[in-house]
Design brief:
homodimer, 37% helix, alpha/beta, globular, 313 residues, 10 helices, Nucleotidyltransferase, domain 5
C-alpha cells in the first residue's frame, strides 16, 4: 500500500479535507469553502487543487497516494455515480471518475456523507472493534448509516440508512420537509425537538424554564431536562420514544453489534441514551434487546475518517 | 469448481434435500424426516447418510462435491455457529463444522432458513437479476431475509431479517408468541389474519360469507375478499397496512432493488400485493417509493436453492 491517502467530506458550506498516512492517522486537516455557484462545477476542481497543493507543500508526489475517498451530501451508487445533490447544485454524474480524472488517475471512491461518517465511527470511533454498526446522526435532520461486515450498505438507489424519513406517527398534522407527515426527524432531530417545544409552550400551561428563553435550542431543552424541568423532560422522552421505536425496527432488519449515536444532539450524553433505551429495549426483537448503545466520538472528523477508509480498506 | 453440490433445508418435520449440478440445476430432490428426539442429535448424521447414499446411488464420489449448504430454523452466526434451534432441540454448536466432519471434510456452509430462502429467490426466483433483495415470507409467522450485493445479511446475532417481530401497533392488547404486543406477524401472517377474522366476526354485525365456515383459513379470507366480501376486504386491508408500513421502514434502512413476497399467504397473488402497495408507497422514503414488488416463484424449493448457493457462489 502506498504511504498516503486523502479523506474528503463535502458539506454544503465547507469541504473538510484530511491528509492521512496509510495507517489512518492524520498528517494534517484543513477546510476549503464549497463553491456551489455554476451548478457546483468548481467543487471538484477546488478539491483537486487543494490535494495537489497539499502534496506540493509536503513534497509528496501523486504516485505516493493510495487513493482519495469522498463523502457526498446525496445518494451515491456503488459505482461512484451521484444521483443528484441538491445542496451542491449537482445533477447525475460519476463523481469518483471525474475527480480521479483531475488527479492523474489516482483511485477515487465516493459514498454518501452519512454513510462515510458511520464508517468512520465504526473504524476509529464509537463503533471501533465492531463489524456491524448502525449509526444515527442527530443534527438538523436525522441521518443514518449502516455498516455490515466493515463495509457501507449503500442500497439499490444509494438510499440505505435514510432513517430520518421513517414514518413514526400516522396521525401527525405537521408536514416534514420531504412532504410526508410523521417522519422520525420531525421529532428526533435538533430542529424536531425545538419544533415540539414550541407546540408544548403554546398548548401547555405548565411552568418551565424554557419560557424565559427568546430562542430555544435543542441544547437548552436538554439542559433544562437535566435540571428536572418537567416540560423539557417530556420533550426528551418523546424524542426517545420516536428514536427508540425506530431503532427497534432498524435492528430487527440489520441486527448490528452496536448502535452509535452522533450529531450535535448527542452532546447531551447519557440522558439522551437513557431516553432512547427506555423505548428501544421493550420494543426490540429479543436477540437485539441487549445491543449496546455508544456515543459517537469523532465529531466533525467522522466523515474524513470514513472517506479515507473507503480507499484504505 | 467441482461438478456437484447439495442444498439442504432443515425444517421442523422434514429435511428437504437437493442434489445439484454446479450450474444450479437439480439432479434430484427428496425429503427425509427430521428426527428431533435426543436433542436433535440424529439430524446431522441422518443428513450425512442421505447425502452419502445419494452419491452412491449416482456413482459420484465425495471428491466431486463442491460443498453442502444448509438452512437452519434458528439464528446462525457468520462462522456457522447455531445459536440454539428450539424446534430441533439444538443448543449452541458449529453446525457447519459438525456436518463437514461427518462428510470427510467436504466444505459446509450454514445460514438461517428464512435467509437462505431469500437467497434462493434472489438467485433463481422472484428476485432474479437483482443484487439487493428484501424477501418477506408470509406463512404461519412472518419471516424475512435481506440480500445485499447477492449475499445474505446475517447480522451480529444471526437475527437480521427477523421482521415478524417489528412492533407495528403499540395499543395492541393481544400478546405475540414472542411476548411483545403488536408484532407484525400478529396481523400479516396466515395465523395473524385468521386471528383478526375471529375478532371481526365476534365484534362486527356485518354479514360475511366467512360466518358460514366452521374453520377459517387465510385462503378463505382472500377468496372471500376476491368476491367483494366487505369484512374479508377489510381484513386484507389491515394486513396490507401493517406489512406496507413495515416495508416502508425496512426499505428506508436497506434500500433494496426489489421486494419479493413469498410463503403460503402469497398464493393470494395480486390482491395481496395491491393491499401492501396501497400503504407502502405513501409511507416510503422517496427514493424507494417506486421499488418493485414481486411474488416469490420457487415455493418450497427456495430454501434448497439458497442453501446450495451458499457453496456455489
Amino acid at each position: 500500500m502506498k504511504p498516503y491517502a486523502f479523506g474528503i467530506d463535502i458539506g454544503g458550506t465547507t469541504v473538510k479535507c484530511g491528509f492521512f498516512k496509510n495507517d489512518g492517522t492524520f498528517v494534517e486537516k484543513w477546510e476549503i469553502p464549497t463553491r456551489t455557484e455554476n451548478a457546483g462545477g468548481m467543487i471538484l476542481p477546488d478539491i483537486a487543487d487543494a490535494i495537489l497543493g497539499k502534496l506540493r507543500e509536503h513534497g509528496v508526489g501523486l504516485g505516493d497516494v493510495e487513493g482519495v475517498g469522498i463523502g457526498v451530501p446525496g445518494p451515491v451508487l456503488d459505482d461512484g455515480v451521484v444521483d443528484g445533490c441538491v445542496n451542491l447544485g449537482w445533477g447525475v454524474f460519476n463523481v469518483a471518475e471525474k475527480l480521479s480524472g483531475l488527479l492523474d488517475g489516482v483511485p477515487v471512491k465516493a459514498a454518501n456523507d452519512a454513510n462515510v461518517a458511520a464508517l468512520g465511527e465504526q473504524w476509529r470511533g464509537g463503533g471501533k472493534g465492531f463489524k456491524n454498526v448502525v449509526m444515527v446522526t442527530l443534527g438538523t435532520g436525522v441521518g443514518g448509516g449502516i455498516i455490515v461486515g466493515g463495509k457501507i450498505l449503500g442500497g439499490g438507489h444509494g438510499a440505505a440508512g435514510e432513517i430520518g424519513h421513517m414514518q413514526m406517527r400516522k396521525n401527525e398534522t405537521a408536514v416534514c420537509g420531504c412532504g410526508k407527515k410523521g417522519c422520525l426527524e420531525q421529532y428526533a432531530s435538533a430542529t424536531g425537538i425545538v419544533r415540539m417545544s414550541k407546540l408544548a409552550l403554546a398548548n401547555e400551561k405548565k411552568e418551565t424554564s424554557l419560557r424565559r428563553l427568546t430562542e430555544i435550542t435543542s441544547k437548552d431543552i436538554f439542559d433544562a431536562a437535566k435540571t428536572g424541568d418537567a416540560v423539557a423532560l417530556n420533550l426528551v422522552d418523546t424524542l426517545g420514544e420516536m428514536l427508540g421505536s425506530a431503532l427497534a425496527h432498524i435492528t430487527a432488519v440489520v441486527d448490528p453489534d452496536v448502535i452509535v449515536v452522533g450529531g450535535g444532539v448527542s452532546k447531551a450524553g447519557q440522558i439522551l441514551l437513557d431516553a432512547i433505551e427506555k423505548y428501544y429495549r421493550p420494543a426490540a426483537f429479543h436477540a437485539c434487546r441487549d445491543t449496546d448503545f455508544k456515543l459517537a466520538v469523532l465529531g466533525n472528523d467522522a466523515g474524513m475518517y470514513g472517506a479515507v477508509r473507503l480507499v484504505l480498506d
